[in-house]
Write a structure and sequence with these properties.
3-stranded antiparallel beta sheet, hpI Integrase, Chain A, 2 domains, mainly alpha
Amino acid sequence: MAIRVLDVATPATPLERLVDDYLIHCQARGLAPRTLDNSYSYSLRAVFLPWCAREGITRVEELDRRAFDRFTTQLLARQHPDGRPISKHSVASYVRPVRLMLNWALAEGEEVKAKPQLPRTSKPHRDVLSRDEIDLLERAIPAERDKLIIRILSDCGLRLDELTQLKPEQVIRSGRQAYFRVLGKRSRLRDVPIPPNLLRRLDRHITHRPPDRREDRVFLRLRRGPMGDYEPMTPHAVEQMVKDAAARAGLRKRVYPHLLRHSWMTEMIRNGMSPIQLSVIAGASMQVIADHYTHLTKDDAYDAMVRVLTTRQAYRS
């Protein structure tokens, strides 16, 4: 597989060189390409550096508290093309990579005088899909390949990149059990259990893939590519398929692949899985689980506590 090299234009100022060095450092750490491109690179190159150019700032030591206050204030005043203000969460997503870059620069011995403040934000409410809605989503899709993708996302909680990179040898069998062995964020390997009924469907799908395929991926396009073979599905193709499936199913929520992972994690927590177990299986930190799963209701907390206490009482008797 070819190594992807970060596209770095010739920098014109010391600050641009510093940003480029930091992005190369992030790539060397093994940061996911989508995270690197969509968050770090965009925030630093398309938002931060153009602002610095307009302000006449070319060196990191010129960035003081007043400069960063102007930076954050101007971001908060920006609007979408339709006139809607940019949310504080979006502003925070632009500011956070700048803070991380400055932390790195300080450790490298650069003269960092200040860092931008993160705007105060409330925790975003993220919707979830019920199991009935996921069933409806699957029934709305005609192709078995796409039904299987929906089930793997919603019953195993794989990330989008993990799903599109899947190869048959990543299905690991241990007696009557089976797992996806996936390489997740920060290049960490983990084993994700595969339910038995899903494993049977997956085996059939892998067996019946077309032989003239470009790569030995589990999920391929349904039509031949320009070279006459079947190309692997891209993350964008999966996103579009999920969006179309939601429209077919008549779901009025915004449905996207990561929402299926989020719904799976919510279902696991609601049904008593230990957050530690979930962290291991999902490849998510305990902090992420604590920060993003506070939408569970008081009824969920009540039911979880009663289950524990009832089990203890039954054991004592």
